[in-house]
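Reopening this ticket.

The earlier resolution said the output was attached, but the attachment link was broken on my side. Pasting everything inline this time so it's all in one place.
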Amino acid sequence: MQKFKEGFLWGGALAANQSEGAYLKNGKGQSIIDILPVGVERKRGLKEPNYVMEQTFDYYPSHQSIDFYHHYKEDIHLLAELGIKCLRTSISWPRIFPNGDETQPNEAGLAFYDAVFDECLKYNIQLLVTINHFDTPLNLAQKYGGWQNKQLILFYRRYCKVLFERYHKKVRYWITFNEINMILRNPFLAGGIVKSGNKVDKETIFQAAHHQLLASAEATKLAKELDSNIQIGCMLAAGSVYPYTCNPKDVQAALERSREQYFFIDVQVNGCYPYFAHRYFEEHGIQLTISKEETALLAEHTVDFVAFSYYTSRLETVDSELRKNLIEGNAMASIRNPYLKDAGWGRQIDPLGFRITINEIYQRYQRPLFVVENGLGVEDTFDEGAIHDPYRIAYFRSHIEQMAEAVKDGVDLIGYTTWGCIDLISAGTGEMKKRYGFVYVDLDNEGHGSRKRYKKDSFAWYQKVIATNAAVL
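Inline output:
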């Protein structure tokens, strides 16, 4: 049986706020992530946005990052040498609308993405662009309270209209929001939500998410009216949730936890809130403001494909003792799975879980799927210009093998873009030492280094995988 269809989009993924740098360059405004420092203070800031808004820190990782802004030609040339067919990247919202609420875009920001996209197309690299990847303009958080304010739908729609009109002939695949379910775990980073005292209640979070869902539907409507060939996708942070035991209570707990990640994707694919939402809202005292017009908008403008990130599976139990020692990876806390190896930073390695997750999502939605993040964050050793990373090769080999099994199962898979194909700063910690790429960037956690690029051993390995459509792993 064929593993991957002809034209399968092998690629890599980056995010503007984690790679571009060029802080405030050519009219760019501040994004939420621009006020987050590195390390422990960053983690506190994600939970207490008012704390980081009132402080000044010595180092902000996003201000310089790996400086993709000035290295994009070199970096895209490297990706072309790698052989990628698709680059997933994002557009920095405050680079286009510095404060988010302007009526006219920043032409210098648009010109930068013209240059980046043209450089990719020069090498026949297709583009998958995320419209909002954790970089809501800071002004929209400070002045409007973030996505809890319905006015952000208007600002987002204006932003999308500019992007689609400017780039629709260059970009076919779009994602409206990065990991939309992450707003449940990190309302400041994912939703720009700011509240007095930093306490954010569930009703505020779900109302903000509802506004994002409406904005996503508005974007889909705009895109299709402009060009029917545009493909609009949603995205979730995915990972199947296993029950810790066969105790029915553990099974029910795993089911409820799993529903959390699919809550908003159900709306974007099916056009309405899932059947279990009504009980959830009632039991948690959540009363959303939803008009008949909004209900119709969601129903009429659903997405073309489902994109997702996968790093690991999760484990759930009702056992209070076991729940005292949770590990946290990608903001998703979990019981430690004794059958899996640790990858560091609160993650465990579960290749078979990748196949399980892919099948679970496809069975639920019956829409084409796009794996847009998958990878291993590790501290690499720089040895006189060489970076030997057999652990990364082993990780990708095992996951691609299981992805191939999912394709054999009958899943319609568009493509696979590995996370951080070039080393970039971590969204959660701001660190550089948590490296994902096939290309090493000479930069440390404090921002010191030449920012020179070096190919890792995994570069040549992935190059062969792409060239053979994964016939050679």
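Reporter confirms the inline version is readable. Residues 186 and 223 are 28 Å apart (CA to CA). The longest strand covers residues 231-238.
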